Structures are given as structure tokens and as C-alpha cells.
Amino acid sequence: MNQIRSLLTGTALCAFATTAAFAQTAPQPSTTQSGQIQPATTLAQDNSTAAPAAQGIQPPSPAPQNLTAPGSNDPLVQKRNADAQANAEYRAKKKLSKAQYKETVKNAKVNRQADKDAANNAMKAQMQGQAGQADNAVPNH
User: What is the CA radius of gyration of the chain?
Assistant: First the structure.
């Protein structure tokens, strides 16, 4: 049973690769005996009958591609790689600096609010103390 499954999987992958290879080539228009060009069939029409066994199988995803060429001796490529690395480092430092700045501003805002609250509470306590003294005072009639 395992051998049959692996055989079917292999043939399905082969059929899928074959249809993908044919799909990448441009179809040549065919001509009839009268010289008229007939339109070629599209991939969507061919895909429904191409590989019925491959419908449930996911094709392997392509390997991730590097944006920079590793280990090139070309000075322009080396400069491009160095510039890309420097830009990445600059962006990382800038992002970190911005995060630190935001944290500093946030802390300053919290401290300022705490100072304002403390000053308001002190002023309210002082005003209540003066109001209490005014109630105890004898009126001048």
C-alpha cells in the first residue's frame, strides 16, 4: 500500500512539474488549412484535465531567496551589501532611539501629572486649613 501511495505521489508531482514547464512556455498559435490562426488553449482549460491525481497534493514551496548576493568579488555588489547592512543597522538604532524617546516622554508626562496632583492636593489642604481657621474666628460686628 505504501509503495502504491508513493508511486501515485511521484507521478502526480511529475505531472504537475510537466504542466508547470509547459505553462511557462508561450503557446504557438496553430494555423488551419485556410491560413486562419486558431487561438491556443489556455492553462486554465488544460489544468482541469492535466493531473487529476495532483489535486490534493500541495507543491513544495520555493526556497527563500536572499536579497543580496553572498560572497561576491564585485566591488559594486560588496558596496551594495555594505550599504544595505549599514541601512539596516541605522534603522534598528533609530527605532530603538525612538522607543527610548517615547518612553522618556511618557515617564515625564506621568511625573508631571503626579507633581500637578501633589500640588493640587497641597493647595486644597492649605485652603481647607484656612477655611477651618476662618470658621473659628470671631466675627467683627
Answer: 39
pLDDT in tens, 38-68: 555 554 454 555 555 556 676 666 666 655 5
Pairing between strand 30-31 and 37-38?
antiparallel
Query: How far is CA 117 from its chain centroid?
Result: 43
For residues 38 and 29, the answer to whether their CB atoms sit within 8 Å is yes
| DSSP three-state, residue 101 | helix
Spans of all domains in the chain: 79-136
Confidence of residue 97 (pLDDT cuts 50, 70, 90): very high
The pLDDT of residue 98 is 97
Which residue intervals of 1-141 are DSSP H helices? 2-24, 43-50, 75-136
Cα torsion angle, 59, 25, 43, 4, sign = negative
* 137 phi-psi bin (left φ>0, alpha ψ -120 to 50, beta other): beta
What SS3 class is residue 38?
strand
pTM of the predicted structure, to 2 decimals: 0.38
Helix (H, G, I), strand (E, B) or coil at 53: helix
